[in-house]
Amino acid sequence: MQRLLPTLLAALAALVAPGLGAPRAAAGSGEKLQVVTTIPDLADIVRRVGGDEVEVKAIARGFENLHTVRLRPSHMVMVSRAKLFVQVGLALEHGWVPGLLESARNSRIMADGPLNVAEDWPYLIEVPLTLDRSTGVDIHPLGNPHVNLDPRFGAFAAQRIRDRLKELRPEAAAAIDANCAAYEKEIEQRGQRWKRVAALVKGRKVVQYHKEFSYLCLANGLEMVGALEPQPGVPPTPRHLAQLAKQMRAEGVQVVVHGPWTPGRIAEDAAARGGARAVELPVMAQRDNGETWLDFMDRLHDGLLAAWDLELPPEEEDSSR
Ligand SMILES: [Zn+2]
């Protein structure tokens, strides 16, 4: 698939008429700013911060491996017409975004560059000391890029998006600032429940399939014992799985978490061998049912509770504001 990508993109590019990209809107015409994002989480946050100023579309639907999202001709057309392209960055979308942007031939986006929301993410973890390619290519070369599962992501992303939108729409700066502040306040309120979930699951041990839950684990005080992939992007090997099963039994790991895109049977077999259960958790918001990043985070934390058959005490639920 990786090798087919350039050919596919070249074919798709032919569908985008040259000169179609970046139609100019008259300043102050009230026309909405067209934005394309890689993940639905970012589309939601752009909508919250941009309000009436923006019209946003996301490429990923919510079930994909974000390192290898399958592209369609419609994505090329979307990007060719956009004024702003927003991605997580940290090489998360490196396998498919550069080719997409090149093929869409959008001079505006090529000149400005995409907004890499997590470019200066201050909480970066799992940065490889060396890039050992002897066992395969590490697809997290800059550190763990799955920052949209970190409860701190919403406010962080909103602020970066706010700053870029104000550059593009200075006349709407006051409204954008107000939208962002209101959104940050809402995150703070909704986040109180996530903190109570963390207090319940804290200290439990977990194994991941692909290291896309590391920020979530840290935020919840979960102890990460290992991953089924020997290194990010490298499929599990029998030898690695055997070692991990032994370690899981020795350490009493009860839960193996995996995303919707991973082979569930491998996770289930590995969990059973280690005396644990496999639990599927979401890795981003779902686009087609309009799930917001906040709702996705709620679902993620509910998934953690369910993984260990836990429930938040109702009396605490009542006293929460
Ligand atoms: Zn990854």
Description:
This protein is of the alpha/beta class and 321 residues long. Helices cover 44% and strands 10% of the residues. It has two domains: 4-120 and 137-189, Rossmann fold, CATH 3.40.50; 193-319, 3-Layer(aba) Sandwich (Rossmann fold), CATH 3.40.50. The chain has a four-stranded parallel β-sheet with strand order 2-1-3-4, with helices on both faces. It has a four-stranded parallel β-sheet with strand order 6-5-7-8. Helix 2 (40-50) crosses helix 6 (153-168), helix 3 crosses helix 4 (97-104) and helix 7 (173-201) packs parallel to helix 11 (293-307). The chain is built from twelve helices and eight strands. Helix 10 (264-273) links the parallel strand 7 (255-258) and strand 8 (277-280). It is globular, with a radius of gyration of 21 Å.
Q: Tell me the count of domains.
A: 2
Report the C-alpha radius of gyration, rounded: 21 Å
Content of β-strand:
5-15%
Structural class: alpha/beta
